[in-house]
Amino acid sequence: MKFALVDEIHEVDKCAIEELHIPEIVLMENAGSAVYRAIRNFCGEIDGGNACVVIGSGNNGGDGLVVARYLANAGMKVSVFVMSKISKMTESTKAELAIVRAMGIEVREPESEQSWNRLQVAIRFANLIVDGMLGTGLKSDTLKPNIKRAVEMINGSGKVIISIDIPSGVLADSGMICENAIRANLTVTFAMPKFAQFICPAMECVGKLVVDEIGIPPELFQNVRQTIIDRKLVKSLMKPRSRDAHKGTCGKILVIAGSRGMTGAACLASQAAVRIGAGLVTLAIPKSLNNIMEEKLTEVMTIPVSESLDGKIFIHGILGGETALNQLLELQEKFDAILIGCGLGRREETLEFVRKFTAQIDKPLILDADAIYAFKDHKEDLKNLKHPPILTPHLGEMAALLDSPIPVLKNSLISKCRDAAKIFNANFLVKSEASILVTPSGEIFLSNLGNSGMATGGVGDVLAGTIAGLMNQVEDPIHAAICGMYFHGRAGDLAFEKNGNGLIASDLIDFLPQALKEI
To answer: The CATH number of the domain where 306 resides is what?
Structure first.
């Protein structure tokens, strides 16, 4: 399934109307009936009772008028309140308004305090409230006073709230909300989901999400470049393992990670690579930590690397006559893919090692954590890597790389990540409540798997290791990132079922085989 940005959904609507000659009012009728069906499924029997439908003057309001009609036909007493001037309604919405009025359904504009009192009474006695005020057309982060007042009244009602397409007050492309927004129990969206429905704070306003195609042909979505990662997609990308497979063909992965005090990151990343099916995993670790890791990691091989006095990989350190850089450059030739960065530390000589090492790598490369930080003040070096790497920053690391405050980044996450991927010729997997993978060509893949229990240290290291471990099990490094996002999120959900908010990162590793087996 794809998800849409506002301009894309408007273009799809325009093509449906102008090229396929589907009348706008037909789409409005389809949308309204879809909302009504979703209400029946969500609320059960609704014959009788009261409904309050609060709308605006746009097509979202027209959809609401269709819902009002269906609810009245089902035996409910319906009151409609228009929060914008009726004179400003679109032609299709005016046509729906005429039908509603001809049916004898009460329609009011709250212009006087008496009218607002009527709205308050209608809300108090309503069994359900339908929000059709703004939809996806909202551009400003400030609500008009009457919309804001209506939102506050509806949210304070304690009643079942159904939003049409997107809750009023939510900015569809960013996931941000105005000073207030409808907090729906159910949102029925049309054609494709919207980005805001997967990211906070907006997703907390959505409630249960239902997607209805409302009669728009799927071929109109072909230019949309945002895809939601699902089981079907992942199954299509994973290569079946042949009967004569052996450890050498299933992926030889080098993990360069860890420092004194951060051995867990190296351990988690390496074990995740093994558990997701890599044939051979080797961990390069500061030499003083090697004995510890040899005892802790049974299935992962280890290699001691020159280190600084404080236990970090050190570019100028000598081990057996070789510098750490030369040692690992010679070693890397034996491997199919390399993960670097988990728990490396931020000593300047370590960061210098990361830049000089990655500059000479001519194979799939995953940069996590401190390896991303190494390029913060050396962005040209990132641009000039031999192949587009996969970077796995969380929002804070991405904001630091782009020299952008986190709120500014999150407010325009899609556009800023697309720009960064193109500028740096790199694939960015940005980790948040819904993680997105952005390619240099502008494609976006979103994973909405996962849960709040995964807000614990080490979960990102497991993701990086999972991606590395998949490199030889798919056709393309991007496919490894896509599948890695899915398996990581699915393992997190399985771990949450068992341990709730008490889950730890290693729980995900334990569930990776089950997530893989499901596919």
So the answer is: 3.40.1190.20
Q: What is residue 193's three-state secondary structure? A: coil
The reply to whether 194 and 312 lie within a common domain is no
pLDDT average, residue stretch 86-91? 90
Which tens digits make up the pLDDT trace of 207-241?
999 999 999 998 999 889 999 999 999 999 998 88
Instruction: Extract the tokens encoding 120.
Output: 């308050």
Closest Cα partner for 152 from 32, 86, 144? 144
DSSP letter for 2, please.
B
pLDDT(321) > 70:
no
Tell me if 165 sits within 8 A of 60, measured CB to CB.
yes
Do the Cβ atoms of 488 and 464 come closer than 8 Å? Answer: no
Written as one letter, the residue type at 350 is: T
In one-letter notation, the amino acid at residue 283 is L
Please say which residue of 224, 244, 279 terminates a domain. Answer: 224
- Give the count of domains, the chain: 2
Asked if 255 and 270 touch (Cβ cutoff 8 Å), the reply is yes
**CA-to-CA distance for 333 and 325, rounded, in angstroms?**
13
**Residue 5, token pair as written in the block:** 């940005």
Chain position carrying tokens 């997107």:
166
Same domain, residue pair 294 and 172: no
Both tokens of 470, joined, read 């998949």
- Does residue 261 fall inside a structural domain? yes
CA proximity to 519, closest of 151, 239, 123, 183:
239
Q: How far apart are CA 335 and CA 314, in angstroms?
A: 22
Q: Are residues 121 and 68 in the same domain?
A: yes
Characterize the bridge pairing of strands 50-55 and 128-132.
parallel
Between helix 113-125 and helix 145-155 the angle, nearest 10°, is 30
Residue 474, domain member (yes or no): yes
Mean pLDDT of the chain: 94
Residue with tokens 């390896």: 371
Q: Are residues 199 and 246 in the same domain?
A: no
Strand partners, 209: 187
> Which amino acid is present at 403?
D
Q: How far apart are the first and last CA of the chain?
A: 18
pLDDT digits (tens, 9 = 90+) for 347-397: 999 999 999 999 999 999 999 999 999 999 999 999 999 999 999 999 999
What domain range includes position 132? 12-224
Same domain, 447 and 364: yes
360 within some domain: yes
The CATH number for 47's domain is 3.40.50.10260
Q: Answer whether residue 7 is part of any domain.
A: no
- Whether 65 contacts 93, CB under 8 Å: yes
Q: Which amino acid is at 293?
A: M
96/71 Cα distance (integer angstroms): 14
Whether residue 391 sits in one domain with residue 306: yes
Which tens digits make up the pLDDT trace of 152-191? 999 999 999 999 999 999 999 999 999 899 999 999 999 9
With CA atoms as reference, report the closest residue to 70 among 208, 188, 207, 217: 188
Let me know whether 212 and 302 are in one domain.
no
Q: Are residues 153 and 254 in the same domain?
A: no
